[in-house]
Design goal:
Helix content: 10-25%
Distance between the termini: 37 Å
Number of helices: 2
Strand order of the largest sheet: 1-4-5-6-7-8-9-10
CATH architecture: Beta Barrel
Number of domains: 1
Number of strands: 10
Mean pLDDT: 88
Low-confidence stretches: 3-22
CATH superfamily: Lipid/polyisoprenoid-binding, YceI-like
């Protein structure tokens, strides 16, 4: 009896550690199926386009509500369907020759992240644009199905307030805030 109690005493912390460890997950973003969309109002029309996601790895633990990692977007990959407009955006607004990446580093989240199915959470972190960092919170809809995860979110970037050039000219006026739509898809694995 004494031996069984001792084995149980030793096995209990090990089983609890294994359960806690199993909560750690890693979301690896697939750049081929993910994208960052943008929308910008201008005089008489609306500009929509996309940016290319270079890579992203997010580690999280739903049991402790911890999150870390980063998503990296190629600043020079903006595509609005107009090569001249995109060239101007690259050289005059984003200065992509100097600032090649746009990044988001999640630091915390609120809300319950279900192990499968749909969840709505608020992800807070550091958004780096044009060499400057900004604290933002992004509402995210997360869908987990087996080893796949998709995260969608929307937020606004007040790019002029953040120090980027306003591309408005004499008659053509452009909004000072750009709408961002995230659609990140990829694989989900237990953290090693």
């Amino acid at each position: 009896m004494k031996m069984n109690a001792r084995l149980l005493f030793l096995a209990l912390p090990l089983s609890l550690a294994t359960t806690a460890f199993a909560q750690h997950e890693t979301f690896t973003v697939n750049p081929q199926t993910s994208q960052v969309g943008f929308g910008l109002s201008a005089t008489g029309h609306h500009v929509d386009g996309t940016f290319h996601v270079q890579d992203g790895v997010i580690a999280f633990d739903p049991s402790a509500q911890t999150i870390s990692g980063s998503v990296v977007v190629a600043a020079g990959s903006g595509n609005s369907g107009d090569k001249n407009r995109d060239k101007k955006m690259d050289s005059e607004v984003l200065n992509t020759d100097k600032y090649t990446d746009i990044t988001f580093q999640p630091k915390s989240y609120t809300g319950k992240l279900a192990p499968t199915g749909d969840s709505n959470i608020q992800v807070s972190g550091i958004f780096t644009l044009h060499g400057s960092t900004h604290n933002i919170t992004v509402p995210m809809h997360v869908h987990i199905a087996g080893s796949s995860l998709e995260a969608k979110g929307q937020f606004q970037v007040p790019y002029v307030k953040w120090g980027l050039k306003n591309p408005s000219v004499f008659i053509l006026k452009v909004a000072k805030v750009v709408d961002i739509q995230l659609d990140l898809k990829g694989g989900l694995t237990p953290a090693s």
